[in-house]
Design a protein that fits this description.
By secondary structure, the protein is an alpha/beta fold. It contains 7 helices and 8 strands, in the order αβαββββααβαβαβα. A 5-stranded parallel β-sheet has the order 2-1-6-7-8, sandwiched between helices. Strands 3-4-5 form a 3-stranded antiparallel β-sheet.
Length: about 210
């Protein structure tokens, strides 16, 4: 069986080629969604010669199925609720509130671990390329976009190796540019497009960001 991408590094290199028009521009900032988006974004930032930072988003998984998102939260206070999922699974306000509170604790932990005392890269007036290792439900991307707009970038590009084919229309309807190497008709999960899709650790993310700023 052949895979479109060997691993996240390979996906990042291939995605960077699709973003070549942004190379060498002083107004471009690359933002990764940890954890899986970081190895992809590292290659894009390197090939575009652009600064790299992270935008931390936490998925709100269903109590009995953590992989199915009923929403997401982001650093800075952004919250996205997937109302159709909440209604379909009859999620109570109490359960939703508990999930948000739990993930806020984890978000703050990761913010401290990943960034330490370093300031976030300024994106006001910049062209922001937002990167993940792929899109399944899109909850994380939606809440990330909501947060980005409050920080007043000049232009936003969502760039991913793989996504459902219908997702382009939703993103572009928001006035956001969309760059994707594979737009899949039948999206069963992001990992199925990678030969190697090992979990990225917190330490790997922290180490990567520390090395970029050393």
């Amino acid at each position: 069986m052949s895979f479109p991408f060997m691993d996240r590094t390979d996906a990042g290199i291939k995605l960077a080629h699709a973003l070549h028009a942004f190379a060498g521009r002083s107004d471009v900032v690359v933002l990764a969604l940890p954890r899986g988006g970081v190895p992809v974004a590292v290659e894009v930032a390197r090939m575009l010669n652009a600064p790299l930072d992270v935008l931390i988003v936490r998925k709100l998984g269903l109590p009995d199925d953590p992989e199915l998102a009923m929403g997401a939260i982001a650093s800075g206070g952004g919250t996205f609720i997937n109302e159709p999922v909440v209604r379909a699974f009859r999620i109570s306000p109490e359960v939703l509130s508990d999930a948000v509170a739990k993930q806020r604790v984890e978000l703050q932990r990761r913010e401290s671990l990943y960034r330490g005392s370093r300031e976030a890269v300024s994106i006001e007036g910049k062209t922001v390329i937002l990167i993940d290792d792929g899109i399944a439900t899109g909850s994380s991307i939606r809440v990330a976009l909501s947060m980005l707009q409050s920080r007043h970038p000049a232009h936003v590009v969502v760039a991913v190796p793989v996504a459902p084919e219908h997702f382009r229309y939703e993103i572009e309807a928001m006035g956001v540019e969309f760059v994707c190497r594979i737009e899949a008709a039948n999206m069963m999960g992001v990992g199925g497009f990678y030969q190697h899709f090992d979990q990225v650790s917190d330490d790997e993310v922290a180490h990567t960001l520390a090395n970029l700023t050393d």
